[in-house]
Amino acid sequence: MDGREKGTIRILSVPNRKEQAVAVADYLIQIFKKAPREKPKVEALLGKAPVDLVSGVSRHIAEKIIARLKALGADAEFRPKQAATPVEAQRSEKATESSGSSIAPQRQPSPDKRESPSSDKEQSGKPQADKRKLALAAMVALLLAGVAYFWGQGGGRAPTGPSSGELASSAHSSRDPGIGAHFSARRIVDEFDKTHAPLFDKRLADGLAEAIREYARLFPSKNGSSNVKVDYSYIQEEVSKFRLTYNVKGEGGAFVVEAPLFTSSPRYQENIPTLAGALAEAVDKLGASVYRPDSLERAKGSPGKLALQAMERLDSLAVLLALSGIGQEVGPSRLDPAAFIESANLMSWMAYIKSVQETRKLPDMLGAMAVANHLLAALFIEAGNPDLAESRALVWMGLGYPAASISALAETPGAEGKLVFAVGKNDAAQVEKVGNGDKPLQKLAMYLSARMAREAGLDQEVDRRITEMLREHPDFMPGIGYAISHGTPDMARLAPTYGMEVSRRSLYAEEKLLDMAWVEKNSAMAATISGAHNAQTGMEEMLKLAVDILGKSEKLRGEERILTFDFCAQWLAEELKESAFAMYKAERETLARDEEINYYQEMIGRLWPDSDVNLLVRIQRMRDVADFEGADKVAGSVAMDSADGRLVEELADLFTGSPEKNMPGVIRTLEALRAKTPPTGEAALRQERIYRMLGFEPVARELMRRALTQNPSDVRLYGAVAKLPESDRLFQMGELSFAGSASFFLYAGRWAEEKGDLEKAEAYYQRALRLGGSAAAVERLVDIYVARSDFYKAEKALKGYLKKGDDSREYDAARNKLARLYLERKRPDDAYHLIKGIEGTWSGESMVLYARAAETLGEDTEAAMFHNMALERHPSSPAPVELALFHLRQGRRDEAASLLQDYKRYNPPGYYFHGIVEHFGQTGNAADVVKFISEVEDGKPEKNLFHAIWRELMNIQAYKAAALAVLPHMSGPLEETPYSYAGRYYQAMAREEPDKASAALGEAMKALEDDKLKWIYFGSWLVTRGYYAEALGVFDEYAQALQGWSGHAAVRMGGAWLLGGLGEEAKNVVKKRIAAPSTSRWHAALAGYYLGDVEEEKLLELAADLGSRVEVLYALGVDRQTKGQTEEAEKFFIMALETGDSQQMEYHLAMAAARRVGEKEGY
After folding, report:
1. Do 96 and 88 contact (CB within 8 A), yes or no?
2. Which of 137, 286, 492, 1090 has a CA that sits 20 to 30 A from residue 108's CA?
3. How many domains does the chain have?
4. What string of H, E and C letters represents the secondary structure of 136-149?
5. d(CA 476, CA 447)
6. Does residue 1001 sit in the same domain as residue 1094?
7. Residue 868 half-sphere exposure, CB side, CA atoms within 13 Å?
């Protein structure tokens, strides 16, 4: 049975004991993220059992929840989703009306359309209320035809026979229905709904079904009840389809409604009935059968009269808000323009009906449309979007409609109509007069008056009217934004004072002010306002609005061109592009789920398709899916000499991430960086990293010295200062220059750590925290405490940081680190309650840690549920790995393999190796890892994957498994790359198979014609075979061929000299190489140790500051081996392997040496 099948969880009974019932309520509140204050409502709901708990949940999740409920003493069952019978539909409707609010999990935003936090809150808080609003809104559309029929002039006759699919009784087919053709619902659709194909979703479908039920209730048939059911099915990825079946007066029928989803694809925007068309079709069909009033005189007490009464009960603003998806606490950044257009048509009909009620005459229809649009204009003004308000107020007047249409406004009761009429006539005096006579409209009138003065070129009048407006209404956001953009300089400086004061008291006001700044194309104002609260949040809101508008603007025509791409593009300032890229990088760095990353990727691709930012995103995403060839091809197409400097720097970061695959790209970006940018700031740091990666350490050091001289105030440079010999002096000077910089003391702490001075590092990190440092400082500090087993201080430091109450990603990281510390210290209870107290949305790591804690406490059902939730929301690593490990610990090996196989597409190749290999190694079944990996890889694992498995086993000291279980699978044909040649060479060395090693070396030499690695392979192979003199000569030739590599050559030459006992002449060759200018201090010391010129104590002292641990341990092993101290030599070689630093050649030399010295088991 499909575990993804959707259905409903139904609670059948709740335990009588109060403690158990409370436990059930607590569990439901926690699972569905309801606030604790909702507990009484939850308990009341449970008291009405049997009751539906939640619908639309997957079977495999539902089973976990039901199991937990049963464990708490409640009884529940899972009901698969299916079409309801007519009787069930009625019962379900009654149950919905009586049950109050239901519990539902928080809805997640989709990549195509993000829902606002306030919208989520509104929906989760009042789901039934919203549903009723939608139902009433849809009902209005269905009632329209009936009202039109009622007052129709009888100018046409309906067809005498039903068309295909229509519900029409033969008893009525020959009667004159009295339907005026001018007022048919179909004509309204044709006339006013050509501009867009509205978004169709399940909510509107539910509203439609409920409206038809309500319609049938208002107009009961004599022959029986009217039942409706809705059956949803998705026929294509971009097209939603549902079937509506109905039964009125004993006759049934069905019609299918199709509407395009949110898409830019033009093929779905033609020849597909819109939702409005479907509504009109439903009205025509149902109305033709249910009633046929002929005139007003005959309508007393008739269904027509009931229709008017129902219309009077409707709140027009509530209908508009329901259809457009916004509420009182939602700013304009979340409005749906298409839904507002749709709502305008509905509002027009409502105004039309009200006018009929008041005047008992038929006004001009276009005039009625204008009346409706002034309501829209007022709503837009209140939402803080004057451009849309003005467009709605003037749209029907500016398209050449006859004067009679506009004149209808003058006869409309109320000041709103007079104000809109005055604006349409460009009568500023009348606008002011209306405002002075109607206090609620005063601020709107002042605002419109200021705009009209500016359009007339009356600058002094603009300032006067703006000043009066701000004095009377200092919290009116549209006025503030207009003052900043169009007032005098003095006014522009004054206006933000009003706005900022308001925004400090209200986040909603701040959002409106931000949106106003953007609408007024004032990016400086936006930056100022957003900086007062959170610049990232402000930019993100603007970006979401831009994407929303751009997506819908492709469907808009005519007067709605104000929302087209061309206009929106003018708003997109450069800082928005940078902010989008920064958010994309932040999502990647925090291992967010693919949907989040793809959202920003698609945003950047649509808004800035030709930008350097989009190019970088394309390259990075190709590399994410291991398409290195494609990524290199795109990167190689960049003309470095003409590329933007930042693009070159970012490409350098991409290339240096895997230099063995991108050496040509590394060299190209290095040359471009040197040509484009001075050695300062970020560019200098990028160049320094490349030089060090290539081994040109003297060049890297000199570059940093020059960068510090030219830009001494750039604190970022101190991240690389630690590698300079004079770092002590530089950091002492930095303490004076950057006494107030948290970043400096973070760098200083890392420098002290690298030197081994943990006490000084601790002091630096504590100082960084006192200066407001980030979570990185507290995490480093905690690592120091943990390393010396001071867990009390570690816990205290994390708790102190968390007391700040921040809600950022860093706060989340610190909290998760504390949870991991609790788990490592065998305190699962503390970890469990720490994460359980999180309010809001949990990160993927938080869910995983909570699941681990629950599993440790024996709550396997809860652990499984949260592992699954993490997987659904964050399908990229580590969520699938953690769930797979959970399955393995539970003995469900097949499920673990199947899961990892399913989620390979979300993650890079081999993403699961580390955790899975570590599990098998720790459980004593390391040899079984090969079989398991084969299952994950469909029985056909790539040969080069085994090298990665081998390295993971070596890192966890599972040496025997590495040698006996994995190495045999590494023989045979591999992908012909330099990396695979290295793998063959390493394994042959480890097995002491000279023929295979020689063959692998020959292939590597051939493949690496000009690569530095061939010298390392060849010389090292000669050392393992005992050809020490030849190896020394190869290393010397290697140093001469590649300038700047003398240090690396000198070290290997020294090792070969000592192992071979080669004499004074060879020793002088090594000394000459040591004396070369490019030999670093560390390499000179290490080579000197091999020659006997540097004491071991001095070597160890330098190693603490400069050296690599595996190099030192191998050197000590060689020294003991040549002195005949076999056991000591073996110990040092084993210690070298235990470092796991397989990137160093000494690691592999130590492996071969360990076999020769002691024949250690497992090597």
Report:
1. no
2. 137
3. 5
4. HHHHHHHHHHHHHH
5. 9
6. no
7. 20
With CA atoms as reference, report the closest residue to 459 among 448, 451, 447: 451
The sign one gets for the Cα dihedral 525, 527, 530, 532 is: negative
The pLDDT value given to residue 864: 87
* DSSP three-state, residue 620: helix
Residues 1037 and 1091 in one domain: yes
Residue 508, amino acid: Y
H-assigned helices in 384-414: 386-394, 403-410
Distance CA(985)–CA(999), nearest Å, equals 8
Residue 878: cis peptide before it, omega within 30 degrees of 0: yes
Q: Which two tokens stand for residue 36?
A: 């604790």
Q: What is the pLDDT of residue 679?
A: 53
* Residues 287 and 375 both lie in one domain: no
The residue whose two tokens read 């069930």 is: 88
Same domain, 126 and 242: yes
- Paired strand residues for 255: 244
Residue 517 lies in a domain: no
- Confidence class for position 691, pLDDT limits 50, 70, 90: low
Please return the burial class of 166, using the count of CB atoms within 10 Å of its CB with bins 0-12, 13-18 and 19+.
Answer: middle
In this structure, what DSSP letter does residue 964 have?
A: I
Domain boundaries, position 336: 315-425
CA distances from 11 to 24, 68, 104, 564 (A): 11, 12, 14, 50
- Is 993 in the same domain as 1107? no
pLDDT of residue 432: 76
**Contacts within 8 Å (CB) and 24+ apart, 810-818:** 810/774, 810/775, 810/776, 811/775, 812/843, 812/845, 812/846, 813/775, 813/779, 814/775, 814/778, 814/779, 815/846, 816/843, 816/845, 816/846, 816/849, 817/775, 817/779, 817/782
Cβ-contact 854, 832 below 8 angstroms: yes
**Strands, E assignment, 4-144:** 6-13, 51-58, 75-80
Structural domain includes residue 538: no
User: Which pTM value belongs to this model?
Assistant: 0.37
Q: Partners of 54 in the beta sheet?
A: 9
Give 292 or 733, the one with higher predicted confidence.
733
| C-alpha distances in Å from residue 152, one per residue of 147, 155, 242, 623, 709 | 8, 8, 32, 66, 87
Q: Using alpha carbons only, what angle is made at residue 741 by residues 717 and 775, rounded to the nearest 5 degrees?
A: 95
Write down how long the chain is.
Answer: 1163
Q: Assess contact for 140 and 346: CB atoms under 8 A.
A: yes
- Domain boundary among the residues 399, 425, 451 is at 425
Give me the helix-helix angle, 645-656 and 628-636, nearest 10°: 150
Is the residue at 1030 inside a domain? yes
Q: Rounded to an integer, what distance in angstroms lies between the CA atom of residue 467 and that of residue 478? A: 13
Report the CATH number at residue 1057.
1.25.40.10
Angstrom CA distances, 713 to 240, 329, 677, 687, 702, stand at 58, 45, 18, 19, 18
Same domain, 353 and 291: no
Residues 572-626: tens digit of each pLDDT: 444 456 666 766 766 665 544 455 666 667 667 766 676 777 777 877 777 666 5
CA nearest neighbour of 947 among 900, 1003, 919, 909: 909
Summarised one tens digit per residue, pLDDT across range 935-981 is 777 666 555 566 566 666 655 555 555 555 555 555 433 334 444 45
For residue 104, the one-letter residue type is A
pLDDT of residue 187: 26
- Which token pair is 1051? 């070290």
> Among residues 1011, 1037, 1069, which one ends one of the domains?
1011
In a domain, 894, yes or no: no
For residue 638, which phi and psi values (nearest 5 degrees)?
-75, 125
**Residues 116, 229 share a domain:** yes
Q: Which of 101-110, 520-529, 690-699 has the lowest mean pLDDT?
A: 101-110
**Given the structure tokens 């949940």, which residue do they identify?**
57
- Does 352 share its domain with 219? no
